[in-house]
User: Fold this.
Amino acid sequence: MVALLGEGAAIRLRSLPLTYSEVGATASAMPPGYRHLAHSTTLPRGAFEGAAELLMTWGMHERAGLRVRSSAPRVAPDEVVSMRVGPSLLGIDAVCRVVSVIEEPDRVGFAYGTLPGHPESGEEAFVLTRHDDEATFTIRAFSRPATRLARLGGPLSRRAQDHFTQRYLRAIDPERPRRRR
Assistant:
């Protein structure tokens, strides 16, 4: 279960500006000047509802090995989230605000944008689509380094993003065992 941010932290994060101007571009043509990423996976028959619940309650992020603190237990517009990667003292925090939400009978998902302090600048979208009894999960993102550490990381920073994208693609399957931290 996701941990909730304190009210003061949530208010502070909501007041921060996004670190990019192309809000919503993961839903259309992704902007130039960023690294683009698009990956999909097909889920087992009948997995749509369970996967949708994992996605919209931050469960996918937790199953991928992130420590998640959110302003609300469910994804909703303008909610904020802080995700920690790595050990408590040496970890990296990635803070984002939800910029769009899709809640349709056969399509569920959201996009979040980066806030100051996130190592990258950009947007990432997670969309689950049902086709008959099968489902496809798609991740689209555009990003570029936002911190000195991310810029110095160069190819390692890109590899880390690819690594977490693959973790998300595995974690969305509700039948797959939860990843241990």
